[in-house]
Amino acid sequence: MPWETVIGLEIHTQLKTASKIFSGAATAFGAEPNRQACAIDLGLPGVLPVLNAEAVRHAVRFGTAIGAEIAPRSVFARKNYFYPDLPKGYQISQYELPVVGRGQVDILLENGSLKTIGVTRAHLEEDAGKSVHEDALGDAGSNARFSGIDLNRAGTPLLEIVSEPDLRSPQEAVTYARKIHQLVRWIGISDGNMQEGSFRVDANISLRPAGSDRLGTRAEIKNINSFRFLQKALEFEIERQRDILEDGGSIVQETRLYDADQDETRSMRSKEEANDYRYFPDPDLLPLAIDDEFIAATTADLPELPDAMRTRFAEQYGLGAADASLLTGSLAMADFFEQTAAGCGDPRLAANWITGALAAALNKTDLDIGSSPVSPAGLVGLLKRIQDNSISGKIAKQVFDGLWAGEGDTDQIIAARGLKQITDTGAIEGIVDAVIAANPQQVEQYRAGKDKVFGFFVGQVMKQSQGKANPGVVNQLLKNKLAG
Predict the structure, then answer these.
(1) Cα separation of 192 and 338, whole Å?
(2) Same domain, 267 and 361
(3) Would the pLDDT of 138 be above 60?
């Protein structure tokens, strides 16, 4: 039986605030365990939470960016459960009345078409602490396993973004997650650092017979912290559920964990329902009221959003869909491109170098565009020397390597490496004559109609000139001389 996959994602993005959502404790990553947890984060008797207004601003910015409803009145609730890393015995979250209501996000599919994914809600909540499991040397030298609790993350502000079950494949899920990741960084509400836990994904997945409109029993895969793991976890879970269903079994609604080492999902616990958490309004927090004036002030400085900028790049600069998408992958990348395009006056040339040599160098060294050793001004200097025929495109790659290595600006590197292009027709003609004289057999083949041999002559001339001969002059001289 053919099966249809149904996926919905719950994305927890850490908001970029200096302090926690209900206390003044710091949120900086990397502190010694339990150095950034105060009495409010621990829920000690006699303390009261105070809402961080900056977290609310970030939520409103996100809601506006996805065209969502911003609730004029939302309520914080206590989500009751007990784990060692949640010492209060409850998490402050939002349930029936979230701050951000329904919105939508468009994703670009592999076939070039757009698909709209519904966003059910986005609500503010606090993070829990972290359980740390370590091996240690016990008494008498025996090995033992110990668990510790680090409460530094307790109270860290999160925005949980819940999608509709509109995703139909692991690749679509990854594309959507990447789009949300791009967006929260673009509008400045999160650093999106997945290694530090700033962006985590829970995936709800089920299968149903193809053509059915009824949802199957779902499993939830918790705390996935990379796009690659998200893809692999969903692929494994599809196979697991398909095998069970085709053997006549039933899927158990449960929470599962993805084990990257074994490349499999494992059962953690039965899946809780909302009533298991015993939600009720938090008596220590007033309802959150947001008016139009607050929304306008909070969103006044929102940048041009990725989709609008991608469309503009294609129309204004004549770029293809692939290049426009790559160049709007981040706001920093888009700014880099626009500065370079303006500086050299040739958007296509700028795009080719940024998506080609620069992107390759960034990927190889695992750097983002903000850490690039080559600045927009530095790349403009290189492109201008290509445009004025001081260097060929091939030599330009050597100059780029020099820029990347910090050897100076373009002109300094050209001078130091002796890379200036030979444009003197007389000098190039001497090389052309020598190459033709040394290869009489290839000359006969070319004159007999084997046009592909022409590339051999071009290659030999460029080799003799160490790549410095102007390609246009080389081609014209060879055509004239070989024609005779």
Answers:
(1) 24
(2) no
(3) no
Of 298, 329, 358, which marks where a domain is finished?
Answer: 298
Transcribe 327-393 into DSSP letters.
HTSSHHHHHHHHHHHHHHS-HHHHHHHIIIIIHHHHHHHT--GGG-SS-HHHHHHHHHHHHTTSS-H
Are 444 and 397 within one domain?
Answer: no
In angstroms, the CA 285 to CA 95 distance is 14
Pick from 323, 390, 382: nearest CA to 351 = 323
pLDDT in tens, 57-82: 999 999 999 999 999 999 999 999 87
Whether 371 and 434 map to the same domain: the answer is: no
What's the rounded Cα separation, in Å, for the pair 156 and 442? Answer: 72
| 401 closest CA partner among 422, 421, 416, 389 | 416
- Render pLDDT for 230-259 as a digit per residue (tens, 0 to 9): 999 999 999 999 999 999 999 999 999 999
Residues 248, 194 share a domain: yes
Contacts of 366 (CB under 8 A, 6+ apart): none
Provide the 10 A C-beta neighbour count for residue 426: 6
* pLDDT(141) > 60: no
Token couple for 276: 């298991």
Q: What is the DSSP letter of 207?
A: E
**DSSP secondary structure letter of residue 276:** G
Q: Is the pLDDT of residue 105 over 80?
A: yes
**Stretch (H or E) spanning 92:** strand 90-94
Mean pLDDT computed over every residue of the chain: 90
Burial level of 145, CB count in 10 A (0-12/13-18/19+)? exposed
pLDDT beyond 60 at 140? no
